[in-house]
């Protein structure tokens, strides 16, 4: 066996058992960051006590990233555009013993699903929501999404976006989520850790995973190869501790903090609901 083959044999590929091999290859473009983030989810599940393929449900909406649920070998639900959080809430309330994870995109979660996102946060439902943010509507052809940064070219803003972008993490914090974190497809170990933290949180957890879309976003904005987009993420992301020390003038729109951004205690919705059922004589 050659040295290369030996090296290959030593790579831990235990994550593969979390994927439906008969659904592969996936439909994502070469160099898309979605696959990286999906692997981080699988590794976070593998490393978190109490999470198995039989007790974990993965729910997604519509969009490139939301196709991820179909590749994962769990009980999965691919739902309507923007509606993953309500479906997941129903599953969690009906079967509180299950772990429920949501995969969503920036368009799915913060545009058509924005209202559901707010109310999932304020209810503090025990969900782990992983928002794949590629700053664009990828699947439908590169339209501006609520997270497209100012000045960026899109199919609906061919001279540059003038809308100010939403910061999903700050919205989640303000709306009542109890765990809010961000990482990127470049920082794979860090992203896995951030997701694992969300899985352990008993309440609404949002993990924003910045992922590169070389096709619908990078190409229009001349961001280069997928590797160049990963370098852009590396250079743009600032660990929270360092971000907190940055003077305001250095917090430019191109830069963003990563890490555990916010965490608090709060009554979980399902527990409160059990109490209501008990009072109503249903338990
Ligand atoms: Fe990924 Fe963008 Fe291609 Fe969608 S359009 S699969 S987000 S690279
Ligand atoms: Mg998107």
Automatic annotation (TrEMBL):
GO molecular function: oxidoreductase activity, acting on the aldehyde or oxo group of donors, iron-sulfur protein as acceptor; thiamine pyrophosphate binding
Pfam families to which the protein is assigned, alphabetical: TPP_enzyme_C
Gene Ontology biological process terms, A to Z: cellular respiration
Thiamine pyrophosphate enzyme TPP-binding domain span: 62-208
Keywords carried by this UniProt record: Oxidoreductase
Superkingdom, natural source: Bacteria
Keyword set includes Membrane: no
Protein name (database record): Thiamine pyrophosphate enzyme TPP-binding domain-containing protein
């Amino acid at each position: 066996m050659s040295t290369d083959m030996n090296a290959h044999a030593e790579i831990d590929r235990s994550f593969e058992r979390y994927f439906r091999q008969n659904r592969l290859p996936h439909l994502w473009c070469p160099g898309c960051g979605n696959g990286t983030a999906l692997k981080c989810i699988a590794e976070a599940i593998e490393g978190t006590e109490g999470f198995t393929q039989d007790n974990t449900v993965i729910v997604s909406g519509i969009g490139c990233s939301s196709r991820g649920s179909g590749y994962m070998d769990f009980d999965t639900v691919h739902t309507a555009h923007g509606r993953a959080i309500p479906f997941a809430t129903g599953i969690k309330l009906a079967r509180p013993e299950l772990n429920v994870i949501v995969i969503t995109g920036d368009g799915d979660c913060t545009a058509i699903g924005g209202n559901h996102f707010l109310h999932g946060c304020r209810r503090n439902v025990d969900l782990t929501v992983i928002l794949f943010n590629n700053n664009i509507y990828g699947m439908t052809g590169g339209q501006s999404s609520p997270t497209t940064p100012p000045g960026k070219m899109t199919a609906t803003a061919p001279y540059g976006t003038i809308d100010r972008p939403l910061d999903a993490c700050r919205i989640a914090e303000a709306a009542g989520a109890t765990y809010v974190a961000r990482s990127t497809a470049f920082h794979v170990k860090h992203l896995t850790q951030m997701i694992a933290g969300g899985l352990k949180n008993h309440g609404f957890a949002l993990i924003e995973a910045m992922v590169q879309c070389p096709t619908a976003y990078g190409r229009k904005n001349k961001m280069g190869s997928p590797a160049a987009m990963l370098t852009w993420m590396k250079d743009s992301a600032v660990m929270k501790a360092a971000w907190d020390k940055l003077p305001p003038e250095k917090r430019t729109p191109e830069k963003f903090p990563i890490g555990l951004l916010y965490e608090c205690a709060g009554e979980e919705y399902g527990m409160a609901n059990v109490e209501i059922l008990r009072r109503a004589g249903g338990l």
